Amino acid sequence: MNKPGKLVVISGPAGSGKGTVIKELFDLNEYKYSVSATTRLPRPGETDGLDYYFISKEEFLNKISNGEMLEYVEYPGNYYGTLRKPVEEMLKKQYNVILEIEVEGALNIKEKFPEAIMIFITPPTYSELEKRLRNRGTETEESISKRLERAKKEIYCIEQYDYLVINETDLQKQAAFNINFIVESELKEQKSGENIINQEKAERFLQNYFNN
Ligand code: 5GP
Q: Among 100, 113, 139, which is best to mutate for testing ligand 1, by the most ligand atoms less than 8 A from CB?
């Protein structure tokens, strides 16, 4: 039987620029994107069915009870979740599937799919993250504060990922290249050494992250 595709889980705090990096990634290889469902309202420029399936809380809760969600999370006031069926179908067709999800959901996916490639993407420092989030201008002050609080907690989970990719300012293409290299290496059952995260690297990274 043919091997299924790989699940590539990409997490990163709000403001990490992961959306832009993922767009660049699609220029590098034929990936499929898992479109999540959410109860949050669309931002200007977002399209239903492309960025997210924007659904009501009632529909979301129904999908949970019908077993249609592979994982889901309540994230500052809204629900977000990965739809089971499209992901399973894409993997069966041997596509490599990108899940762009936050940490709690990502760790649930890792339990269900131990083979998943777990990648965390972040700006080099917390102050840079804050700057990017504010410059984006899409969020209220309340939402920004909640997202920053969450980001502080999420960064301490990097050790549970396989790879850490730093999204340096204005170098999104490089970050996408690194992610593509990680996936291509994994497909050859190799590791991309530079980005592997372990306890020692995580500790060093965290010290620098909050002190600069
Ligand atoms: P945003 O509102 O900025 O689009 O997304 C907020 C957070 O939800 C981001 O960290 C994003 O990665 C995460 N997210 C988006 N879709 C899903 C999903 O299906 N499951 C989980 N667990 N998180 C998601």
A: 100
